[in-house]
């Protein structure tokens, strides 16, 4: 378990994030915070000690963004809710890695674990690139639009795809009756 969490810390540090770990704040839980200048990832792990060996999993992952609060000196910030789909994507990637490395030794695939680790690093690297872009742009909420616009675009694209699928399905059904 320590090694798994240390990997996430090392990956965060390798892409320029600051990491903070809160060891077992509550019984059976572990929290790590990965932060850039604008982006903050809170990762809550659950530890199941009933299993032998104990098992660690992602309980919850939450992203938030530090946005300027329009104060006179511009120094204070307010937290803005993150993206639910981004939370699910990153949590799923970490969860897949944890599941792979916690398999029985004869079932583990080191190449797959490495690939899953690289996926996580890729996600973190991309988020830090957006974090740097958000820092450079002071208008539109301090640049958090680099994070928020992707979520809004995703919702619109999903709705568009559903409308297109419905139209194609209706067309196929109409052709069948001819």
Could you explain how this protein is built, in words?
It is a single chain. The chain has 178 residues and is α+β, with helices and mostly antiparallel strands. The chain has 5 helices and 5 strands. A hairpin with a 3-residue loop joins strand 2 and strand 3. It has helices at residues 2-14, 84-101, 110-136, 139-142, 145-176; strands at residues 18-22, 29-35, 39-48, 55-68, 77-81. The chain has one domain. The termini are far apart. Residues 70-74 have low confidence and may be disordered. The protein has a 5-stranded antiparallel sheet, with helices on one face.
Strand and helix layout:
Blueprint: H1 2-14, E1 18-22, E2 29-35, E3 39-48, E4 55-68, E5 77-81, H2 84-101, H3 110-136, H4 139-142, H5 145-176
Antiparallel strand pairs: 1-2, 2-3, 3-4, 4-5
Provide keyphrases for this structure.
alpha+beta; 5 strands; 5 helices; 53% helix; 5-stranded antiparallel beta sheet; single chain; 178 residues
What's the SSE pattern? HEEEEEHHHH
The radius of gyration over CA amounts to 20 Å
Approximate helicity band: 40-55%
Could you report the average pLDDT, rounded to the nearest whole number?
A: 82
Contiguous low-pLDDT stretches (5 residues minimum) are: 70-74
The helix/strand class is alpha+beta
Number of helical regions: 5
- Counted beta strands: 5
Major beta sheet, strand line-up:
1-2-3-4-5
The span between the termini is 62 Å
How can the largest sheet be summarized?
5 strands, antiparallel
Number of domains: 1
Shape: globular
> How much β-strand is present in the residues?
15-25%
């Amino acid at each position: 378990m320590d090694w798994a969490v240390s990997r996430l810390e090392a990956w965060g540090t390798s892409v320029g994030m600051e990491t903070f770990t809160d060891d077992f704040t509550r019984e059976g839980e572990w929290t790590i915070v990965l932060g850039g200048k604008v982006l903050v990832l809170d990762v809550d792990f659950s530890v199941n000690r009933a299993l032998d060996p104990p098992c660690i999993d992602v309980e919850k992952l939450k992203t938030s963004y530090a946005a300027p609060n329009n104060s006179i000196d511009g120094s204070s910030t307010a937290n803005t809710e993150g993206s639910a789909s981004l939370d699910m994507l990153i949590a799923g990637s970490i969860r897949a890695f944890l599941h792979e490395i916690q398999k029985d030794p004869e079932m583990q695939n080191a190449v797959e674990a490495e690939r899953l680790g690289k996926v996580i690093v890729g996600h973190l690297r991309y988020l830090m690139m957006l974090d740097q872009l958000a820092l450079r742009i002071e208008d539109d909420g301090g640049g958090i639009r680099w994070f928020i616009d992707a979520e809004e675009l995703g919702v619109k694209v999903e709705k568009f795809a559903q409308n297109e699928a419905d139209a194609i399905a209706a067309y196929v059904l109409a052709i069948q009756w001819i």
